[in-house]
Amino acid sequence: MKFFGLSAWSSIAVCLSLFTSSCKQASEEPLATVVEWPELTNLDKIAYRVDGFARTGDTSAIRESLPALLEAGRAVTAATVPDNTAQPKQVDTMLADLVNLIDGLSSEELDSESLSSLVLGLHPVIEKLIEAAGMPHLHGNEGPHDGFLHPVFNAAGEQIGTAEIKLHDDAGDLEVWLTRGGHGGEPWRLPIDSTLNLAFPDLEKTVTLAVRDRVDNKDESGATTIFEGATSYFVFPGETGADATWLQGAEFAAKAELRFQDATTGTFALYPHVH
Ligand SMILES: [Zn+2]
Ligand SMILES: [Zn+2]
Question: What's the CATH fold of domain 38-133?
Answer without folding.
Answer: Four Helix Bundle (Hemerythrin (Met), subunit A) (1.20.120)
